């Protein structure tokens, strides 16, 4: 099958029985429903939706998720920004704190027509962005990253002196202050809708506080951007917020199911694998999807239900009771019943095909170059390429 | 820079200061020394060396590791087999139990001139391989996988009835019985050279036992293949073995350093990253290498010394005392001193470059499309592409 390097698929589409294993399957119906539900939810709050494309890394998926072919969208690498810009996306935020050495690439993407904005959380970054702006006659737009919950980067929301100083350096130095951006990453550690709603409210309040500080200092703050899949799913109010970002919800995964952000029946992504052996006395079925196909992500190990390297389903996507990928080597998955299971091990012959629901859609997707897209009948009706790298 | 899709690099080579981060660095001197040491060790035992190319996935690296440009070599996917065959490798074993649906691809690789052998551990596989051989006038060579230590696949070495039955089905069915193959994967859980030497002896003894059973049944067993990086490093005798396989030793990694198979100063692979922020009150330095660049592999978490997501070095590769990637998000690494450290956090400014030694070379390498190859002066002198997929 011919795949264009950086576009959508062309050529013959194989049937699911013809696919080489392991490979990645994407249930388009579930994807579309997940996106529609999120869009309806955020429409109800009157806020814009900026899908994070770091999970999908695919223009075909992006076009289903974005409000328009031009965006808005969020990206995690400049490679994504370049790829999506070539595909017509015009409104993007690069959501990783900017390093000065990356500004020339940012400028090139902008010069080609995309409005790519940056994030930063230090005076040093603001000065570098302002200096680049002056030197290149392009007022780079930047959002100040604010730390909602201490999990990673960002200015403390109450540190008004630093917020205003960063903002002033940008504006007076010749760049553009576009707003504030937060990501409530600690919500990933929760599993109770009420607790996630409180995390969403803390994220919202920190965002509005930071925006208020900038505005009180006479600085602009048109964008107030928050988001994570859990807080987007359970926020009860978004007053003062202008946009919400989320990405992994599109596909869902077992980790987000453990958090409660998605249901297992909503998970759109799976890995198709073949049985390649048995160790019957141990209750093991060996399959050709190891950690290279599933990723090394074991995020559910820290949750109430440890899903191993994933839940095992039949070829149509129906989970077998209590059957998981209990362990994985590079190209081998060891399928077994979970500890304490009362179900019987299914009789899967050599060559039988299974589907594995992943712990983490971002990590599992990244191990593959393409999606085999399933229609409502479970047949492959398209192949969508995905990108990688930086 | 122009990179051919499936060959060696062409065009301009960037200096290390010009590289976009994150990216993968390969110290060619260390690689060459690691290979030379393994080759000298195995030469001393009078056994052939079949490098496993699943870590490298690069023709440039393969040519340094193999005894000749034609091999022998070991691969973990048919994609690797196709790629290396196109690059002139003629003697390969595909080291994952064969699924019948893959035999047509195996046949195509063989028809193009490469002697690609299979492994299997069941009568059902032997019958499928024999049937394919009869149907295509190509006697597919197969090795019987024997289970040295119960860690994954393979026939129990003392199960003479099953070994002989598989062998007979192959030979009488029209395929070729090429020998037996073992992988002492449980040696990865050890850390004492004496214990690893005992694991190597158990692997050797199981191999020789299985080969003896086949020969006693009047069946051929020309190849007796064993190997893993730890057992290849510490085996004290290899009588009856014809070849040894190992792969990750070429690059080394922190997991193998924890096992004792390599020294930290031998690790040839690292990820170059840039500082993108600070959380000074927490003692955190934020860098642009997260788990996407480092992989989700946390293998050292189960060892005596947990290296987080990797040891942090300066741009020349010298480790900072007690500095590790303590946590990682998709595109963010959180660099911090390890718990209990007495060293001071180094003062790394915005934009400063670091190198991160990985937990697992196979997993980290797989996140990247190319190696930036360092010469003895620490300068990039070549870019070598690497492949992925199945």
TrEMBL record, chains A, B:
Pfam family, one: D-ser_dehydrat
Domain D-serine dehydratase-like as annotated: residue spans: 268-375
Keyword Lyase: yes
Transmembrane annotation, as ranges: none
SMART domains xref list: D-ser_dehydrat (SM01119)
Record-stated family: Belongs to the DSD1 family.
Protein name (record): D-threo-3-hydroxyaspartate dehydratase
């Amino acid at each position: 099958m011919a795949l264009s390097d950086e576009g959508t698929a062309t050529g013959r589409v194989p049937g699911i029985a013809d696919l080489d294993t392991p490979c990645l399957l994407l249930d388009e119906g579930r994807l579309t429903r997940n996106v529609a539900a999120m869009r309806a939810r955020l429409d109800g709050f009157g806020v814009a939706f900026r899908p994070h494309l770091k999970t999908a890394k695919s223009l075909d998926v992006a076009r289903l998720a974005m409000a328009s072919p031009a965006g808005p969208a969020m990206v995690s690498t400049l490679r994504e920004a370049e790829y999506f810009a070539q595909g017509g996306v015009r409104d993007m935020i690069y959501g990783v704190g900017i390093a000065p050495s990356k500004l020339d690439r940012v400028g090139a993407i902008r010069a080609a027509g995309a409005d790519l904005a940056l994030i930063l959380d230090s005076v040093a970054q603001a000065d570098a962005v302002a200096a680049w702006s002056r030197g290149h006659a392009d007022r780079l737009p930047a959002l100040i990253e604010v730390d909602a919950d201490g999990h990673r980067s960002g200015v403390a929301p109450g540190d008004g002196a630093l917020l205003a100083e960063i903002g002033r350096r940008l504006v007076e130095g010749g760049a553009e202050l576009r707003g504030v951006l937060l990501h409530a990453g600690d919500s990933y550690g929760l599993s109770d809708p009420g607790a996630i709603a409180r995390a969403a409210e803390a994220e919202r309040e920190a965002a509005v506080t930071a925006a208020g500080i900038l505005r009180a200092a006479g600085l602009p703050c048109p964008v107030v951007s928050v988001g994570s899949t859990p807080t987007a799913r359970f926020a009860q109010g978004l007053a003062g917020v202008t946009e919400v970002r989320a990405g992994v919800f599109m596909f869902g995964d077992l980790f987000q199911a453990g958090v409660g952000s998605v249901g297992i029946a909503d998970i759109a992504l799976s890995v198709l694998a073949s049985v390649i052996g048995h160790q019957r006395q141990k209750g093991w079925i060996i399959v050709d999807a190891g950690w290279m196909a599933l990723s090394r992500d074991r995020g559910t190990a820290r949750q109430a239900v440890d899903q191993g390297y994933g839940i095992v389903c039949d070829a149509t996507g129906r989970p077998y009771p209590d059957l998981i990928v209990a362990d994985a080597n590079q190209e081998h998955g060891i399928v077994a019943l979970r500890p304490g299971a009362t179900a019987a091990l299914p009789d899967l012959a050599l060559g039988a095909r299974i589907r594995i629901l992943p712990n983490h859609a971002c990590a599992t997707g990244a191990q593959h170059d393409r999606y085999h897209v399933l229609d409502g009948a479970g047949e492959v009706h398209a192949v969508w390429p995905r990108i990688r790298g930086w």
